[in-house]
């Protein structure tokens, strides 16, 4: 894997992290009750989007690049035409499915018919994302992966700018409508429409960027030369679609618990819990946890992907160094963020759960372990996909979904009373998928987890750093406000935590080579270590 491909993985998850941040901002701006308009439509969109992912573009790019290297230009044209027709049709069917499912799902499951207009916009966005994936695959195949990386960064920038503009316009209009109708619930509907419109505009601008770039750099002019050997579509194209469908099914299974919780909670808790509490739980707890999970993935997924690619070449022994380092970083970051959320529960709740700081504090304090367990189970699933172990990956996620359904349907701790029971359900679900995932991971890759290095020492340093940071932030909080102290606290905690880990030599020299910034920090720590 080249450095540009490494950056592609980072940029992809960086974009996802900004999406979670953007949705958190919408939750804060619109209020807990009205966020329900967004979460129903968005989680349905995430489910369908599971089948529109970068795996198709990556595999298509590799296929084209391989044929270009062999000068099989006629094959390249065939692959491009067939893959474009298939994926356009596939994306259209998914978008049409979203549109057809919008009205009955919103009426019967969500109890809010207006959500369907949000879903209509997101369905169109889904189709454009499919087109963008085709173009990105063409660019990767032509050797312009840097253009795709820039596309991810531009997509993040476009989404944030258009989101702020559309969000502000729709919010100001919603305030006027709510004042006229004397019902604040419409504030969330219009803000959700603005959010969906911003995502659609961002995807369309990226489509224009990819299309123009591809037209300018395409090698079509040289395809009349070279070898004219034509391979069967079964050999060239079928593996591409097989991997795409398996990857989509895996993503669908990972995301469906978040969709199921909305359905079960809304329909089983109408009397026990208010819509505001449900919306606050989603925008405050779920989105925040997914944001931290994405940061953990960014810190370790590149190393895991490198290890899996080496593993696929049959170099099992060489792959273990990367995989061990990737899992170690995931453990360290997961424990670090979980400890920070536990320590700063009141601080985070003061920023994200303004309507009920006390309830939000309890959620973050006792549900922080969800971040660690879910992140590790997600990374294990990604490693299985990269290694081509699709069946074990699907079995892992299927068992997780079945267990989640059993929890919310039958157990007393399942969804049925208040948001704390929902949090308990997600925590238990993440623990089960983590344990099962680590068992499968060990049996396939043969990786032995050093619990002293990966668990005990990082957890001790995380607790120590959390206590020190907590004392400082609680002292500053009353004077400068929650928001400013939150930013200062997370920066201080992250620096202190990593300094402690390097000081006790928790990272080996080989692991620090994978993360160059740690080498510079280590040289600074050596001064105090003597």
Structure overview:
This protein is mainly α. Helix content is 85%, strand content 0%. The protein contains 20 helices and no strands. The protein is globular and about 70 Å long. The model has no long low-confidence stretch (mean pLDDT 79).
SSE arrangement, N to C: HHHHHHHHHHHHHHHHHHHH
- Helix-strand category: mainly alpha
Quaternary: single chain
Percent of residues in beta strands = under 5%
Number of strands: 0
Number of helices: 20
N-to-C terminal Cα separation, in Å?
38 Å
Per the principal axes of the C-alpha atoms, what is the gross shape? globular
Mean residue pLDDT: 79
What does the radius of gyration come to? 24 Å
pLDDT < 50 stretches: none
Residues in helix, %: over 70%
Q: How would a crystallographer describe the biggest sheet?
A: none
């Amino acid at each position: 894997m080249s450095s540009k491909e490494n950056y592609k993985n980072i940029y992809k998850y960086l974009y996802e992290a900004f999406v979670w941040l953007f949705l958190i901002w919408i939750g804060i701006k619109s209020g807990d009750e009205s966020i329900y308009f967004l979460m129903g439509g968005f989680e349905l969109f995430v489910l369908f989007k599971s089948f529109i992912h970068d795996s198709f573009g990556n595999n298509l790019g590799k296929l084209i690049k391989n044929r270009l290297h062999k000068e099989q230009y006629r094959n390249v044209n065939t692959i491009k035409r067939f893959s474009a027709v298939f994926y356009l049709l596939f994306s259209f069917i998914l978008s049409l499915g979203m549109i057809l499912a919008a009205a009955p799902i919103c009426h019967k499951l969500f109890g809010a018919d207006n959500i369907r207009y949000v879903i209509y916009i997101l369905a169109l966005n889904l189709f454009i994302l499919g087109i963008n994936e085709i173009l990105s695959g063409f660019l990767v195949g032509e050797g312009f992966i840097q253009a795709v990386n820039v596309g991810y960064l531009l997509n993040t920038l476009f989404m944030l700018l258009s989101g702020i503009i559309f969000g502000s316009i729709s919010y100001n209009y919603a305030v006027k409508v709510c004042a006229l109708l004397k019902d604040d619930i419409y504030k969330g509907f219009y803000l959700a429409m603005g959010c969906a419109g911003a995502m659609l505009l961002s995807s369309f601008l990226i489509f224009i960027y990819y299309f123009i770039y591809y037209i300018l750099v395409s090698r079509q002019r040289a395809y009349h030369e070279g070898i004219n050997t034509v391979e069967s579509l079964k050999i060239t194209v079928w593996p591409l679609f097989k991997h795409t469908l398996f990857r989509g099914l895996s993503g669908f299974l990972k995301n469906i618990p978040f969709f199921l919780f909305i359905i079960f909670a809304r329909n089983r808790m109408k009397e026990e819990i208010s819509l505001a509490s449900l919306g606050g739980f989603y925008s405050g707890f779920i989105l925040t946890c997914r944001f931290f999970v994405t940061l953990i993935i960014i810190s370790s997924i590149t190393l895991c992907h490198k290890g899996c690619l080496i593993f696929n070449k049959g170099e099992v022994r060489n792959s273990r160094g990367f995989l061990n380092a990737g899992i170690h970083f995931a453990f360290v970051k997961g424990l670090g963020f979980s400890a920070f959320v536990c320590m700063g529960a009141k601080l985070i709740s003061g920023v994200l759960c303004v309507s009920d700081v006390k309830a939000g504090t309890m959620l973050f304090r006792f549900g922080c372990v969800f971040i660690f367990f879910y992140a590790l189970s997600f990374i294990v699933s990604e490693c299985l996909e990269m290694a081509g172990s699709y069946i074990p990956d699907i079995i892992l996620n299927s068992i997780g979904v079945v267990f989640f359904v059993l929890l919310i349907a039958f157990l007393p701790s399942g969804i049925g009373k208040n948001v704390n029971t929902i949090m308990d359900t997600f925590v238990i679900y993440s623990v089960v998928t983590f344990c099962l995932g680590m068992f499968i991971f060990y049996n396939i890759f043969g990786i032995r987890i050093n619990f002293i290095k990966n668990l005990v020492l990082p957890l001790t340093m995380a607790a120590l750093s959390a206590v020190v940071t907590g004392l400082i932030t609680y002292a500053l909080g009353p004077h400068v406000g929650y928001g400013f102290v939150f930013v200062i606290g997370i920066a201080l905690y992250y620096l202190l935590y990593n300094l402690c880990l390097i000081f006790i030599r928790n990272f080996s020299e080989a692991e620090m080579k994978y993360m160059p910034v740690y080498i510079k920090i280590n040289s600074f720590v050596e001064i105090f270590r003597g």
